[in-house]
Design goal:
Blueprint: E1 3-12, H1 29-33, E2 42-50, E3 55-60, H2 64-78, H3 86-97, H4 104-126, H5 130-133, E4 141-147, H6 151-159, E5 164-168, H7 173-184, E6 189-193, H8 202-211, E7 219-221, H9 229-238, E8 243-245, H10 251-260, E9 266-267, H11 277-289, E10 293-294, H12 303-315, E11 322-323, H13 331-335, E12 336-337, E13 342-343, E14 346-348, E15 358-359, H14 361-365, H15 401-404
Parallel strand pairs: 4-5, 4-11, 5-6, 6-7, 7-8, 8-9, 9-10
Antiparallel strand pairs: 1-2, 2-3, 4-14, 12-15, 13-14
Helix pairs in contact: 2-4, 3-4, 6-7, 8-9, 10-11
Enzyme class: lyase
Domain Mandelate racemase/muconate lactonizing enzyme C-terminal: 147-242
Keywords: Lyase
């Protein structure tokens, strides 16, 4: 069996309303008024074709509009290769790109979509689900969590049988968590994502983490900028809360320090840009050796990456939970077939050969990419200190500190 072609399918995905997403950001009302989807979320799907008639599918994230070009550039390396030799082809792609420097999630995102498609081909060729190739099934259902930034949304999510919610943003995090805990009680787990912009300083993140201790969070996610690895130790030493990170890193080399230095309790590789299932299986094994759990990032991803995550979490011992916007843009369910069936707070592990899914190419074509970058927060979101939004700084010290750190 040989690879004969690789094709990409890029689409604009609609975004959930702000209350459905763990962030301070807002929806693009002006864009929606013009008949556009709004937001800047793109989904990039990849199909790998073979001379045996077997087609594999994968998904890339990490800046999909840019990555589409990278996938087409890698295509020439792979035509004529045996798609079942997945590890060798991963290494071939890696060394082919190394002359361009450390490409991070963009380079790994391109490899991810191709890599997952190769696993899909191999599963179909052998007549087994991908989880069987990854070591077999440890569990039949994968627990999920969803996003909620208001008490009303949290109650609604819990009412659907989901036993964990995540809120987010750096505007009033302590008050927000306190409100959600009061709304859902002690039977629902809560996490918070503190990602920027603006990112917290390590000193401020440590203060926030200490203030959140009474609420018994499942984790505090991305409390500081991803390039400040040493800052995690300062937070670790200051507060007794589980920490989670890793969605903005790629491959075992990008996740290594977080795991080996035991700076996090939960590692969150992104199923669309971590380097594919080839890398995510290795990341999970590294984490297992340090008693670190795996909860793949999936908040902005499309449905094919979600399928890949389901197969991974079915096969590894340290699977914790899968992120899922269970009330995402309605077009999500039309993008893939079959759409994963959620029952309460979990999803059944697919049993069809390969990943067990395909995309509706016609539906994808109806939603061409409009844009893939934007400033994610508005001045009214109060993420930045008053009067500083137009500075667009990366990291910012919190002001009005007495109120901010107490949730008053």
């Amino acid at each position: 069996m040989k690879i004969t072609d690789i094709r990409t399918f890029l689409m604009q995905a609609g975004r959930p309303s702000p209350s459905h997403w763990a962030a301070d950001g807002r929806s693009d009302d002006a864009a929606m008024a013009q008949g556009k989807l709004g937001g800047f979320r793109n989904w990039l799907f990849v199909k790998v074709y073979t001379d045996a008639g077997i087609v594999g599918i994968g998904e890339c994230s990490g800046w999909p509009r840019v990555i589409e070009t990278a996938v087409q550039d890698l295509k020439g390396l792979l035509i004529g290769e045996d798609p079942t030799h997945i590890e060798r082809l991963w290494q071939k792609m890696q060394i082919a790109m190394m002359g361009h420097g450390l490409l991070g999630t963009v380079g790994a995102g391109a490899m991810t979509g191709i890599d997952v498609a190769l696993w899909d081909i191999k599963g179909k060729a052998l007549g087994v689900p991908v989880w069987n190739l990854l070591g077999g099934k440890m569990r039949d259902r994968i627990p999920i969590y969803s996003h909620a930034n208001t008490a009303e949304m949290a109650v609604a999510v819990a009412g659907r049988g989901i036993r964990m919610i995540k809120c987010g943003g750096v505007a009033d995090p302590v008050r927000k968590v306190a409100t959600l805990r009061e709304a859902v009680g002690d039977e629902v787990d809560i996490a918070i994502d503190l990602h920027g912009p603006p990112w917290l300083t390590p000193a401020d993140a440590a203060r926030v983490a200490r203030a959140l201790e009474p609420y018994n969070l499942l984790w505090v996610e991305d409390p500081i900028a991803p390039d400040n690895i040493d800052g995690y130790k300062r937070i670790r030493d200051a507060a007794h809360v589980p920490l989670a990170a890793g969605e903005r890193m790629a491959t075992i080399f990008g996740e290594r320090e977080l795991i080996e230095r035991e700076l996090v309790d939960v590692i969150q590789p992104d199923t669309g840009r971590a380097g594919g299932l080839t890398q995510m299986k290795k990341i999970a094994a590294m984490a297992e050796a340090h008693h670190i759990m795996v909860a793949p990032h999936s908040g902005s991803l499309g449905p094919v990456a979600e399928y890949a995550a389901l197969h991974l979490l079915a096969a590894i011992p340290n699977a914790l939970i899968l992120e899922r916007l269970d009330d995402d843009w309605p077009g999500r369910a039309r993008t893939v077939s079959p759409h994963p069936v959620q029952e309460g707070g979990s999803i059944a592990v697919p049993d069809a050969p390969g990943l067990g899914c395909d995309i509706d190419e016609d539906f994808v074509a109806l939603h061409p990419s409009e844009r893939n970058v934007a400033v994610p927060v508005a001045e009214t979101d109060r993420s930045y200190a008053p009067g500083t939004h137009r500075e667009h700084v990366y990291v910012q010290t919190r002001l009005r500190r007495a109120k901010y750190f107490t949730g008053g």
